[in-house]
Design brief:
7 helices, 68% helix, single chain, mainly alpha, INSIG_fam, steroid metabolism
Length: 259
Amino acid sequence: MAEGETQSPGPKKCGPYISSVTSRTVNLMIRGVVLFFIGVFLALVLNLLQIQRNVTLFPPDVIASIFSSAWWVPPCCGTASAVIGLLYPCIDRHLGEPHKFKREWSSVMRCVAVFVGINHASAKVDFDNNIQLSLTLAALSIGLWWTFDRSRSGFGLGIGIAFLATLITQLLVYNGVYQYTSPDFLYVRSWLPCIFFAGGITMGNIGRQLAMILLEVKVISRRVYQHQIVLSLNLEEYIQLKSSHGTPRSSGNVCSTKL
């Protein structure tokens, strides 16, 4: 082998950044952490509204924060938000029905605003009875699903989340962890499943959007890496070609000029 030739190296491995982005475990961890903090923030804000309007009552000895809420409420809501936000895109993938309706952050933010408005209405709007309020909030929650989701999987998961969350809340109130004023649906308010349904749809949309964003980052990172590989291979081929053929020498001064 000639001294000037260079041996072509083997396939290069992805850099640490691209490897971390394309890793499924890291992808899930990033989305889970973001969803957890979003759930904690919404729980603090919305639960504060419910407590200020005396909709929910906690024992005085469990109030331990500036937000006048029990310490366990934000972590529980954050965990539930992370699970719901990760579950929605997972179900979409397994059903083979990718959600493509209104997939932009502006739509997601409007969905969050409508959800906060529904929760605000449950605490501040006065109706003659709870049945009228429950029917109104049910219509608003279904309208939220129709406006920002419209998927069968989203509606089914919303119903399941509302049922399971209402059941857990019934058990908590039954065991005296906290209570609702004027309960009309066993130990809770009859409109509570509507809030849980709207919350499930909202966190599902956020989870879907995060999954789409990280997928786009993953695709772009792979394309950039492939482009770098192509450029490096082309450079190596050019160097090998120059080494094998040699640099042409100038022959302009082979013959001397005779007078």
